[in-house]
Specification:
The chain contains 40 helices and 26 strands. The protein is α/β, with parallel strands linked by helices. The longest helix is centred in the last third of the chain and has 43 residues. The radius of gyration is 36 Å and the shape is elongated. The N terminus is likely disordered. Its EC number is 7.2.2.10. It holds the Pfam family CaATP_NAI.
């Protein structure tokens, strides 16, 4: 079965469900590194499977929770395939039945239910079976609307009581969703860490042996303290994970909540898709999603893409013979209105969504790379832990391990079996705890944490993230291809200038100066050739105009000319419509008047409509030939208006013979509206001011190394004027080819020329969606990370092709939104720039966390290894290491991964996709801090008794004080180093720290808990209380890390990443070995 993921199709909601990865167009370089995936947006399934298999994982259910669930993804595909087969089987059965003798077919008469004349079962059966016979039996669409108490023109009344009655009778437009996982499930998943399971087993064994040898009063401390520490780690981890999942659930709800227009009480109102009820009249335009099952009331060239339901990519044309519309499908072309007959679970779409509603996640490139880093560190940690285990066991069983009082712990043949096992368990516990600290299980999950935080904050900044990976990819964006209208401008259009009747009219609403015939034709063209509407309240009051900003501006101008919208539309009937097309940049309508005359009205891009005009109307209502002089007059008028940043629209018409129009519905659908020999009625200029914040936003992008390019369907002169106004073009001197280029010129170039020219383009005018797609492809081939804005259905291929597709939330169609990665809710370019800031912040926060965590890793491992090998015991025991792990993993991630973005981020160049995660600056910082901590703590370990004046104390107590000080100083070093990690490349690490309340809260909480542990929980952590001098020593050791970090930042680092030096060394070594082999 061919799915909708065929190349070039913009309708790709289910592209990931239908394909097996082979169709994806992303160029993969065949890298042997499984963790080297530049983009996960279109990554093949086998690449995603490879990195999972290569990762060193202690707790798979937690590590892979926010990645694409490959098994569930396959199950989702299977469900979808079965459902589509089911839909097609029903269709086939109905066609087979209808092919037989229909004279015997009897449709049950409508059964009244409550206040309505038909039951939900009858409606659902008719719609599901596409049963036209039943529809006719019910009296057609008009009869059905009467049964549902709906007016086909004015819709339902829309009062609360009416809506409630309809929901009670026919259901609401929602479907049951699988409940998100509860807290206990996260707690269960946190338990499944292999190392924690081993520690729990060791704790139980230690508990049993301790109680057996020392009695219950004293013997439970060792095992109990380890068990408590493990449970604390598990609970804190589960709480953190559960909070993240709630954030993702809320964001998913927001993604599914589509807003659309319905007709209620004669006016168009915007409602949520969940508020649609049976009986609603819904206008449909190109790019819309069909919100529920229904039947077509009227339509013009209406074409529906049903591939999301049937799996077949062909477009289905809808008319009175094929009136049934299925929920979840997209409007591919044309326009129309529908009557809703079934909603929610009573539709096939509702049944499908209820069966596959669980989100299976998605990984990001950074997540994959961090799994690679975690795997490398984990292997080193496992090796170190194994070495420590072997050394400690050998020393223990050979009698080289001594107690704190100097006695040997194990004597062959003398030590009891219970004591020997207890000693061995303690050694295994230490080794396993080293693995817990060494394998940074939380490192890849820190990405999810910072993404969840960023996505929530981005909602406040008017950006809804649909794909996690886009959030971080935006930080690497090198160019943004932006629309003009509504993104760089306010999208608040007004007609400010007009050329009509052979003269210029300013202001544009001076109807008395125009001849009556011209005004009448203009009003007819404005009222009929539109997909907007005008609502005039019965009791008077302000007129409400709805539609796109361009349509609204022209309708408002028509009202000023004296237009009565409803009256004009009732005087003539629409015969055929050519919906506005972004390729042809014009739209037309054929209308039949009461006297059987036919007028064909066109409206569109001024110079394009002008080229089709043979005549124009003068001030005396006479028709004048469009000679060279007139043509130059209008061209000059268009240029002058465009130079003043006005959008130029021409309105023209022609007459046509009724007998030449096809009289059957099928031929009429295929009939092309005549677009030659037109009579020009007016050329109007619409003012759409630049957004006040856009110039600063463009400047900010340029400072950040991100080039902003304007790609617009408007006149090149209009585009140039707006580009100069908002700073995309610096001056008139920049406004030359190829900086300023027309879409058709770019399209005509060869592939190689396009790549070269694309680099220089700042403004592309009169561009089609194809030109936008070609520009995106050319820029990506040049190595750019491209972000593209789009709002139309035809923008879908460019949005899909781009590294980051940004759809407009207000003007964007559902097709554009579903092809996008991020939806800009206010259509504002300044919000796009905020997304860039957040993208960079995600990357920066992860780097902060890596620097912090690796410092702890290196220091803890080196201290324990050196101490174990040299003296046979470790200064940091299992419980202490688990507390350090909690600070490092969960609390550290919360503190550092939720840092808000700063202006400093926008003074850097974009982050390269293959730049090393650990930069030379980070290596310098972490190695300096780790070396300092290791040196100080090892000196304390070996010379602590003398330095702390403990020589005269009891040996056991002196060692406990020394080890407690080492533990305390080590934890304080980590707390103080969290401040250093906030600003890896800035001198002032305290800048803005008080604004991050979560960071301050976590640091404060860690300090308080550390004091409680030392002062009150010594029995559990094998520590003793410290006096005030020892507390000061601990704090001084930690405070030194601040001036040390500042001094370290004065040390220069090479620009070439350290990883490249290692690669070169490895390459040279390989060459030398090969050379020796050849000899």
């Amino acid at each position: 079965m061919e799915g909708i993921n065929s190349k070039g199709s913009p309708y790709n909601r289910w592209r990931d469900l239908e394909g097996d990865g082979s169709h994806f167009g992303e160029a993969y370089d065949g890298s042997s590194d499984p963790f080297d995936i530049a983009s996960t947006k279109n990554a093949p399934i086998d690449r995603l499977r490879r990195w999972r298999q290569a990762a060193l994982v202690l707790n798979a259910s937690r590590r892979f929770r926010y990645t694409l669930h490959l098994k569930k993804e396959e199950e989702k595909r299977q469900t979808l395939r079965k459902f589509r087969v089911h839909v097609q089987a029903i269709r086939a059965a109905y066609l087979f039945q209808s092919a037989g003798d229909q004279t015997n077919e009897v449709t049950k008469p409508p059964v009244p239910r409550g206040d309505f004349g038909i039951s939900q079962d009858q409606l659902a059966l008719m719609t599901r079976d596409h049963n036209s016979v039943a529809l006719e039996e019910y009296g057609g669409v008009k009869g059905l609307s009467d049964l549902l108490k709906t007016n086909l023109d004015k819709g339902i009344h829309g009062e609360d009581a009416d809506l409630l009655a309809r929901r009670n009778m026919f259901g609401s437009n929602t479907y049951p969703q699988k409940r998100g996982r509860g807290f206990w499930m996260f707690l269960w998943e946190a338990w499944q860490d292999l190392t924690l399971v081993i520690l729990i087993i060791a704790a139980v064994a230690s508990l049993v042996l301790g109680i057996k040898t020392e009695g219950i009063k004293e013997g439970w401390y060792d095992g109990g303290s380890i068990a408590f520490a493990v449970i604390l780690v598990i609970v804190v981890t589960a709480i953190s994970d559960y909070r993240q999942s709630l954030q993702f659930q809320n964001l998913n709800e927001e993604k599914r909540n589509i807003h659309l227009e319905v007709v209620r009480g004669g006016r168009r109102v915007e409602v949520s898709i969940y508020d649609i009820v049976v009986g609603d009249v819904v206008p449909l335009n190109i790019g819309d999603q069909v919100p529920a099952d229904g039947v077509l009331i009227s339509g013009h060239s209406l074409a529906i893409d049903e591939s999301s339901m049937t799996g077949e990519s062909k477009i289905v044309h809808k008319d009175s013979k094929r009136p049934f519309l299925m929920s979840g499908c997209k409007v591919a072309d044309g326009s129309g209105t529908m009557l809703v007959t079934s909603v929610g679970i009573n539709t096939e779409w509702g049944l499908l969504m209820a069966s596959i509603s669980e989100d299976t996640g998605e990984e990001t490139p950074l997540q994959v790379r961090l799994n690679g880093v975690a795997t490398f560190i984990g292997i080193v940690g496992l090796t170190v832990a194994a070495a420590v285990l072997v050394v400690l066991l050998i020393r223990y069983f050979t009698g080289h391990t001594k107690n704190s009082d100097g006695t040997v712990q194990f004597r062959a043949g003398k030590t009891s079996l219970g004591d020997a096992v207890d000693g061995a368990i303690k050694i295994v516990t230490v080794a396993v705890t080293i693995v817990v600290v060494a394998v940074p299980e939380g490192l890849p999950l820190a990405v999810t944490l910072t993404l969840a935080y960023s996505m929530r904050k981005m909602m406040a900044d008017k950006a809804l993230v649909r794909r996690l990976s886009a959030c971080e990819t935006m930080g690497s964006a090198t160019t943004i291809c932006s629309d003009k209208t509504g993104t760089l401008t306010l999208n608040q259009m007004t007609v400010v200038e007009a050329y009509a009747g052979g003269k210029k009219i300013v202001p544009a609403d001076t109807a008395p100066y125009l001849p009556s015939v011209l005004v009448s034709l203009l009003i007819e063209g404005i009222a009929q050739n539109t997909n907007g509407s005008v609502y005039a309240p019965d009791g008077g009051g302000e007129v409400e105009v709805s539609g796109s900003p361009t349509e609204k501006a022209i309708l408002q101008w028509g009202i000023k000319l004296g237009m009565n919208f409803d009256a004009v539309r009732s005087e003539s009937s629409i015969v055929h419509v050519f919906p506005f097309n972004s390729e042809k940049k014009r739209g037309g309508v054929a209308v039949k008047l009461a006297d059987a005359q036919v007028h064909i009205h066109w409206k569109g891009a001024a110079e394009i409509v002008l080229a089709s005009c043979a005549q124009c109307m003068d001030s005396n209502e006479g028709l004048v030939g469009m000679d060279e002089e007139k043509l130059l007059f209008f061209k000059k008028a268009i240029e002058d208006m465009a130079a003043n940043s006005l959008r130029c629209v021409a309105i023209a018409y022609r007459t046509y013979d009724w007998n030449d129009i096809p009289n059957d519905e099928e031929s009429l659908t295929k009939w092309a509206l005549p677009e030659d020999e037109l009579i020009l009625l007016a050329v109007i200029g619409l003012k759409d001011p630049c957004r006040p914040s856009v110039k600063d936003a463009v400047q900010l992008c340029q400072n950040a190394g991100v080039k902003v390019r304007m790609v617009t369907g408007d006149n090149l002169q209009t585009a140039k004027a707006i580009a100069l106004e908002c700073g995309i073009l610096g001056s008139n001197a920049d406004a030359t080819e190829p900086n300023l280029i027309e879409g058709k010129s770019f399209r005509a170039l060869s592939d190689a020329q396009r790549e070269e020219v694309a680099e220089m383009i700042s403004v592309m005018g009169r561009s089609s969606p194809t030109d936008k797609l070609l520009l995106v492809q050319a820029l990506r081939k040049r190595g750019h990370v491209v972000a593209v804005t789009g709002d139309g259905t035809n923008d879908a291929p460019a949005l899909h092709e781009a590294d980051i597709g940004l759809a407009m939330g207000i003007q964007g169609t559902e097709v554009a939104k579903e092809s996008s990665d991020i939806i800009i809710l206010d259509d504002n370019f300044a919000s796009v720039v905020k997304v860039v800031r957040w993208g960079r912040s995600v990357y920066a926060n992860i780097q902060k966390f890596i620097q912090f965590q690796l410092t702890v890793n290196v220091a803890a491992l080196v201290i324990n290894v050196v101490a174990a090998v040299s003296s046979g015991y470790v200064p940091l025991n299992a419980v202490q290491l688990l507390w350090v792990n909690l600070i490092m993993d969960t609390l550290g991630a919360l503190a550092l991964a939720t840092e808000p973005p700063t202006d400093h981020l926008m003074h850097r160049s974009p982050v390269g996709r293959r730049e090393p995660l650990i930069t030379n600056i980070m290596w310098r910082n972490l190695l300096l801090q780790a070396a300092y901590q290791v040196t100080v703590l090892l000196v304390l370990n070996f010379r602590g008794r003398s330095l702390l004046n403990l020589q005269h104390d009891d040996t056991a107590h002196a060692n406990k004080v020394k080890n407690t000080l080492i533990f305390n100083a080590f934890v304080f070093c980590q707390i103080f180093n969290e401040f250093n990690a906030r600003k890896p490349d800035e001198s002032n690490v305290f800048s803005g720290v008080t604004k991050n309340h979560l960071f301050m809260g976590i640091v404060g909480l860690t300090l308080v808990l550390q004091v409680i542990i030392i002062e009150f929980l010594g029995k559990f952590t094998s520590t003793v209380r410290l006096n005030w001098k020892q507390w000061i020593v601990s704090i001084v050791i930690a405070v030194i890390s601040w001036p040390l970090a500042l001094a370290g930042k004065l040390l220069p680092v090479p620009e070439t990443p350290l990883s490249e030096y290692f690669s070169r060394g490895f390459y040279r070594l390989t060459r030398i070995l090969r050379h020796h082999q050849n000899q």
